[in-house]
């Protein structure tokens, strides 16, 4: 099956190039796309050597019925374990071979964290509904200089919708699907002379499937249901021509049933709540801007299992003020300072209600359009109350040729701070842990050819992480691991006709985790990466048959991968291989008017039997259909 997929992908790319050469209609040229996540202010992709992927609002609208995890799972170099498992199954981000705790997630540029979790580096993707997302920008590679601790594999910036075109606009959708799934969203947005606003409420409920896989087909494994409510609001207050203030609020909660482990049925339950609120302010200068962000996050989780009831309560505060200024036509500067504080509320710990905080000044210098040459030089100095100080830097040159070809390279360092549960938690905590440190090398090229109808991008990378924290056989967290990853990514986007767009990608990643002796001189053993396939790829074809009818087809391939078999009696883990799989989805949309559409998502059309995580079930053929309106 793997060879068939590669042949299919190669043949598809060849046909795309031939089709692009034969027709001269619509232009794409992603080098002209403006992004904000790469540098914290608006910049064309052609002016930065950072690798950014944008999931547009149009793509999100034409993926109705899919979760954020499923959208991300369709991006090159990114595997979300559990994305197509039971909706209540936790979603693990594996980005360029790195584990889930090395990716920073932002909402409108503000990092969101779960201080109560073991990883502590990102929020549960299940909390974020897709319905009010304007776009998602995925920034690849180590980004600790711009975004601080944890941004070792990359950054995911979820940008929410703002305002509207008139004073009051109401929108919504209603969906029905397999496994007795119902989802509804209603929202209102608008704009007046001095105010814009956006409000939305989403409800999702499903009977789900059995989270654990019933390999013996006993039929006795019950369904594990999932129920979620989410509310989002932001208000833009245009105090003057130059000053805008934007308070925001996001509240999300879900209830989920979950099983006792791989191949093990169970009656466990979890109730989780997430609050994210704060304010953002932007003051526009003649040649730049000043922005200040404040965010507060709170996560509460209550889990009921055979071990009893466990409650987790984490709080996170973040303040960030920065500004950029165009010194000359060819030089820009960015400078800022960030303050973070996290707290775990638990009086039963040896250190009751532990907290940690840090202050991080950072700066970057950008040289642009020097005969096509662009360069970013950046650094951040983090003063941490627990483990001391840390300096990270970025060197990112790129060269743009005739607005058509960009070559780039990056050398960047990053770090990940120990979490509060690593330092003070109930199980194996170690207050003497050091931060994990990373160094990443990256290079590649991006090309726009055939009259800007075909965009190609290729990237190679190598990442080394030392002092990796792991849980040893003595039941304690220690800094004795090293992780080394390398790989490459290939992407192609072609729009040979106004009504046709095709995207294809392929990613290769390999690496190992080495456990070394306490002296750092001897390797005790080495493990290959778990839950990360070496080979993954996909192709998506979208075609607007007529102004009212759109259809797309999406094929994704995951190669075989390693996983761990967990023994619930001995608590020991042993390696196991998970087979490769290919999935085929389709989406159909009919616009019955300018203000409404009917749509349906057909997922896993071939009803493929596969595993994302060893011992856990996945969705077979399933459908989500609905209607949307806007007036």
- N- to C-terminal distance: 47 Å
Helix content: under 10%
Provide the CATH topology: Maltoporin, Chain A
Q: Which consecutive residue ranges, at least 5 long each, have pLDDT under 50? A: 4-27
What is the number of helices?
5
CATH level-four homologous superfamily name? TonB-dependent receptor, beta-barrel domain
Query: What is the CATH class name?
Result: Mainly Beta
Hey, roughly how much beta strand do the residues contain? over 45%
Task: Characterize the structure shown.
The chain has 631 residues and is mainly β. It has a single domain, classed as TonB-dependent receptor, beta-barrel domain (Maltoporin, Chain A, Beta Barrel). Helix content is 6%, strand content 58%. The chain has five helices and 34 strands. The strands form five sheets. It has a 22-stranded antiparallel beta barrel. A hairpin with a 2-residue loop joins β25 (477-497) and β26. The longest helix is centred in the first third of the chain and has 21 residues, at 2-22. It is globular and about 65 Å long.
What descriptive keywords fit this protein?
631 residues; mainly beta
What is shown here, in short?
This protein is mainly beta. It is built from five helices and 34 strands.
Chart the SSEs and their pairings:
Layout: H1 2-22, E1 34-35, E2 43-44, E3 51-55, H2 57-61, H3 68-72, E4 78-81, E5 92-95, E6 103-107, E7 110-111, E8 133-140, H4 144-147, E9 154-160, E10 169-177, E11 181-191, E12 195-206, E13 226-238, E14 243-258, E15 268-285, E16 288-305, E17 308-326, E18 331-344, E19 355-370, E20 373-384, E21 388-401, E22 405-416, H5 420-424, E23 436-449, E24 454-471, E25 477-497, E26 500-516, E27 523-528, E28 535-546, E29 549-558, E30 561-566, E31 573-578, E32 581-593, E33 596-603, E34 622-630
Parallel strand pairs: 6-9
Antiparallel strand pairs: 1-2, 3-8, 4-5, 6-7, 8-9, 10-11, 10-34, 11-12, 12-13, 13-14, 14-15, 15-16, 16-17, 17-18, 18-19, 19-20, 20-21, 21-22, 22-23, 23-24, 24-25, 25-26, 26-27, 26-28, 28-29, 29-32, 30-31, 32-33, 33-34
């Amino acid at each position: 099956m793997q060879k068939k997929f590669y042949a299919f992908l190669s043949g598809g790319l060849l046909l795309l190039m031939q089709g692009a050469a034969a027709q001269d209609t619509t232009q794409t040229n992603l080098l002209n796309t403006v992004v904000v996540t790469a540098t914290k202010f608006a910049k064309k992709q052609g002016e930065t050597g950072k690798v950014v992927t944008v999931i547009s609002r149009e793509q999100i609208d034409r993926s109705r019925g899919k979760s954020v995890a499923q959208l991300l799972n369709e991006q090159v170099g990114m595997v979300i374990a559990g994305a197509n498992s039971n909706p209540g199954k936790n979603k693990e981000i594996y980005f360029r071979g790195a584990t889930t705790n090395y990716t920073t997630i932002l909402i409108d540029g503000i990092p969101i964290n779960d201080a109560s979790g073991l990883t502590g580096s990102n929020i549960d993707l299940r909390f974020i509904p897709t319905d009010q997302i304007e776009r998602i920008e995925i920034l690849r590679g180590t980004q600790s200089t711009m975004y601080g601790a944890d941004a070792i594999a990359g950054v995911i910036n979820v940008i929410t919708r703002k305002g509207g075109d008139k004073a009051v606009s109401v929108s919504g959708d209603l969906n029905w699907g397999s496994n007795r799934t119902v989802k509804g969203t209603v929202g209102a947005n608008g704009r007046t002379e001095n105010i814009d606003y956006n409000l939305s409420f989403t409800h999702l409920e499903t009977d789900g499937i059995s989270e654990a896989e019933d390999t013996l087909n006993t039929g006795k494994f019950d369904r594990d249901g999932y129920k979620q409510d989410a509310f989002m609001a932001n208000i833009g207050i245009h105090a003057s021509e130059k000053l805008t203030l934007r308070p925001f609020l996001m509240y999300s909660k879900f209830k989920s049933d979950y099983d006792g482990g791989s191949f093990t049925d169970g009656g466990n339950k979890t109730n989780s709540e997430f609050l994210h609120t704060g304010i953002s302010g932007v003051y526009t200068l003649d040649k730049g801007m000043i922005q200040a962000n404040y965010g507060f996050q709170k996560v509460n989780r209550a889990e009921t299992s055979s071990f009893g009831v466990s409650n987790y309560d984490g709080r996170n505060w973040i303040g960030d003020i920065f500004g950029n200024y165009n010194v000359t036509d060819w030089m820009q500067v960015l400078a800022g300072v960030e303050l973070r504080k996290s707290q775990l509320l638990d009086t039963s710990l040896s250190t009751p209600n532990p907290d940690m905080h840090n202050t991080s000044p950072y700066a970057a210098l950008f040289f642009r359009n020097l005969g096509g040459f662009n360069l970013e030089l950046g650094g951040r100095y983090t003063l941490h109350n627990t483990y001391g100080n840390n300096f990270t830097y970025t060197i990112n040159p790129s060269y743009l040729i005739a607005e058509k070809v960009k070559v780039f390279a990056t050398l960047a360092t990053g770090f990940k701070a120990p979490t509060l549960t690593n330092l003070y938690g109930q199980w194996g905590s170690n207050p003497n842990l050091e931060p994990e440190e990373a160094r990443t090398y990256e290079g590649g090229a991006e090309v726009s050819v055939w009259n800007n109808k075909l965009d190609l991008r290729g990237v190679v990378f190598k990442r080394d992480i030392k002092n990796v924290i792991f849980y040893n056989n003595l039941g304690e967290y220690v800094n004795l691991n090293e992780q080394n990853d390398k790989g490459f990514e290939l992407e192609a986007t072609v729009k040979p006709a106004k009504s046709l767009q095709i995207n294809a990608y392929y990613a290769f990643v390999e690496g190992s985790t080495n456990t070394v002796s306490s002296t750092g001189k001897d390797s005790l053993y080495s493990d290959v990466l778990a839950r990360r396939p070496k080979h993954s790829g996909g192709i998506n074809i979208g075609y607007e048959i007529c102004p009212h009818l759109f259809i797309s087809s999406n094929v994704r391939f995951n190669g075989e991968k390693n996983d761990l078999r967990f023994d619930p009696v001995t608590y020991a883990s042993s390696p196991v291989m998970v087979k490769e799989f290919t999935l085929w989805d389709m989406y159909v949309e009919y616009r019955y008017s300018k203000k409404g559409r009917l749509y349906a998502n057909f997922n896993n059309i071939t009803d493929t039997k596969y595993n994302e995580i060893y011992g856990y079930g996945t969705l077979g053929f399933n459908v989500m259909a609905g209607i949307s309106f806007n007036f």
